[in-house]
Amino acid sequence: MKVRMAPVQMFLMLFIVQTGTVFISFQTRMIEVLGRDAWWVLVALGLLYFPHIWLFERFHHSFSWTPVVSILYGLYWFYTMVSFTSYTVYTLNVWAFPKTPLVVVIVMITILLYAASVSKPSTAVNLGVIMMPLIIIFIVFLLFSVKSLVWTNLFPVGESDLKTLLKGMGPSQMPFIGIELYLLLRPFTKGKLTNRSLIVYSGLWHLFFLFMLVVPLAFFSLKEFEIVNHPIIYILKSQYVTFVERLDLIFIYIWMAWSIVTLCIYGFAIMRLMDLNHIKKPPRLAAFLCVPFVAIALFLAVKERITIAAILFPYFHLLFAFILPLIVIFFNRRKQRKEETRP
Questions:
Q1: pLDDT at residue 331 above 90?
Q2: Confidence class of residue 242 from pLDDT cuts 50, 70 and 90?
Q3: Cis before residue 133, ω within 30 degrees of 0?
Q4: pTM beyond cutoff 0.85
Q5: For a Cys-Cys bond, which of 88, 218, 279, 340 suits 149, CB 3.0-4.6 Å?
Q6: Which of 294, 302, 307 is nearest to 109 (CA)?
Q7: Under CATH, which architecture does the 7-333 domain have?
Q8: Which has more pLDDT, 243 or 111?
Q9: CA distance linking residue 329 with residue 336, whole number of Å
Q10: How many CB atoms lie within 10 A of CB 213?
Q11: What integer pLDDT is reported at residue 2 of this predicted model?
Q12: Contact present, 82 and 281 (Cβ < 8 Å)
């Protein structure tokens, strides 16, 4: 099935995938390891985002979705979907639906994902547009907390030694997860992308995650992060406004929609892999995958297993966002040069 999208739609899909689900919790692990140094580490690492995405733009024509590569990425994105679903369901169970069985919520999310995945590609492409107003509302709500921030909580910095900084590289990778989707979405995007557009997107991504990190770091003391697992939710819960009784519940529903749209885009990506490799009857295969999806998500929807999954993600990210693209692009370009020099 032919898929075409505008550059704005592609960037919006990429932004939602990279922010959805992880942005409410990545702060805790980073701050536990790096303390006040977390914010400047993110500033430094975020500057590497543009070169990364620029290299993808420069060499995406040399990245081929062979059956083996597609299977590897398909399995990785399936694991990502399952892990994100289990974390979403666990969080909803704690904050919004404590009396609803986990399996019921997982099945409902799975049905939504299946419906979005087998529908027209334009459905997943346009879901990001629907999320824009909700993202803006969320940011406005979080800005209410600015008056309560203690900016001196951000200092002093430079207290972490080299060993601690290296240990902090793991949790610092969580905001970068999903960047490899650029390699899949780019061929469906019309026209040439300028460096300016890449810089603008990279800057927005960087500012968003920096804002999500600095606000909790300035709101809570370092000791409080030992007991606060979802700092953004706690911050919104503490805010009082006259027109809404509980901002945290409104945010939970916004985040739930955000997470589901993120999962739908991953589902869209897996379906495109099936199309690129000419898999017969993709909807039937997608329906078959729903069974292990529900079972694995239910198994992982426990705090201890969610923590283990979060620890594994940086290693998978290193493999699928750096090592595997480098290997595929290197061998494809080498093959192309041999064909060009062949008499």
A1: yes
A2: low
A3: no
A4: yes
A5: 218
A6: 294
A7: Up-down Bundle (1.20)
A8: 111
A9: 10
A10: 23
A11: 74
A12: no
